[in-house]
Amino acid sequence: MNTGQAHWHILGAGAIGSLFADALSTDGREVSLILRDGVRGETRAQVVERGDLVSEKHFKTTGPRGHTGISHLLVTTKAYDVCAAIDSVIQRLNPDCHVVLLSNGMGFQEQVLASLPSMNIYCGTTTEGAHLLAAGHVRHAGSGETRIGFAARTAGDTRPVWFDQWESAIDNSVWDSDVQPALWTKLAVNCVINPLTALNRCHNGELEARKSLANQVPPLRDEVAAVCRAQGHAEIAEALPRITAAVIQATSGNRSSMLQDMDAGRPTEIDYITGYLLEIADQHSIDIPLNRALFEAIKSRAH
Ligand code: KPL
């Protein structure tokens, strides 16, 4: 039964995974990190800085092929790693495991639903800011909101019991009975900001401050809005000019995650951001040439 105290296993101990591991454990939950080189019985120190407060905790670690069953799995890997990472622990997932997908982008949710049909799959999005300063060392960069809901809605779904504990651990967490609009809003914003900042190697704020870049935002955003509207999210399409401007301003000093990935020589999440938008646009026979050009430019540069 999963009605008692949840023991969270975290797949993807990057900035957000580490931040949430720290918050869940501070609130009294049992937390284990699944690491590629993790060894059962060993612990890993995690330092989280929140302003002047520095907390250091030692988490149990386990490799993907550990022995214990997993009842609650939080996935915070890069989008392109989600399916392979889940596959690596699939033998350990309890038949009624609760799996929360908090990675950026869209497209992998359907794949996970298809590969784990008996399990409880949730997805969500967070605007919490966190930077990984080094492996196991995270700085909280700003408070945000975390919205979570079922990956696929069925009649009679009720908020899961674990969310009570989650909500008490993670500030500003919201149970969202229809999380798709939140996922689409994040996707739409990422489609506008991430490829442009990555290709121009600029901070988010330059999309407003540099005229040559600022001029590219409205036509790109209008293409994204057309796809949102066709997909049934007219309210996102209407609000997109305001939302993108607000995110660009609020994150003006940030380097987008796609720029950081390119600079670090990592694969980017473009297939799950603009790539997903292109797939949905094709389903609706909508031409979005500016997004396609950015997609191809990132693909030709990415490692
Ligand atoms: O989510 C982001 C990202 O970089 O992936 C934004 C909102 C663009 C902030 O940088």
Query: Which overall shape is indicated by the principal axes computed on the Cα atoms?
Result: globular
Bound molecules: ketopantoate
Distance between the termini: 44 Å
Number of domains: 2
- Structural category: alpha/beta
User: Fraction of residues in helices?
Assistant: 40-55%
Total helical elements: 12
Spell out the blueprint of helices and strands.
Blueprint: E1 7-11, H1 15-26, E2 30-34, E3 43-50, E4 53-62, E5 70-75, H2 82-89, E6 93-101, H3 108-115, E7 120-126, E8 129-134, E9 137-142, E10 146-150, H4 162-169, E11 173-175, H5 180-200, H6 206-209, H7 211-214, H8 217-230, H9 234-250, H10 257-263, H11 274-283, H12 289-301
Helix pairs in contact: 5-8, 5-9, 5-10, 5-12, 8-9, 11-12
This protein binds ketopantoate.
Ketopantoate (KPL) is lined by residues 104, 189-190, 193-194, 204, 247, 251, 254, 256-257.
Give an overview in words.
Strand 1, helix 1 (about 15-25) and strand 2 (about 30-35) form a beta-alpha-beta unit. The model has no long low-confidence stretch (mean pLDDT about 95). The chain has helices at about 15-25, 80-90, 110-115, 160-170, 180-200, 205-210, 210-215, 215-230, 235-250, 255-265, 275-285, 290-300, and strands at about 5-10, 30-35, 45-50, 55-60, 70-75, 95-100, 120-125, 130-135, 135-140, 145-150, 175. Helix 8 runs antiparallel to helix 9 (about 235-250). It is of the alpha/beta class and about 300 residues long. The chain has 2 domains: about 5-175, 3-Layer(aba) Sandwich (Rossmann fold); about 180-300, N-(1-d-carboxylethyl)-l-norvaline Dehydrogenase, domain 2, CATH 1.10.1040.10. About 40% of the residues lie in helices and about 25% in strands. It has an 11-stranded mixed beta sheet with strand order 8-9-3-4-2-1-5-6-7-10-11, sandwiched between helices. Bound molecules: ketopantoate (KPL). Ketopantoate binds next to helix 5.
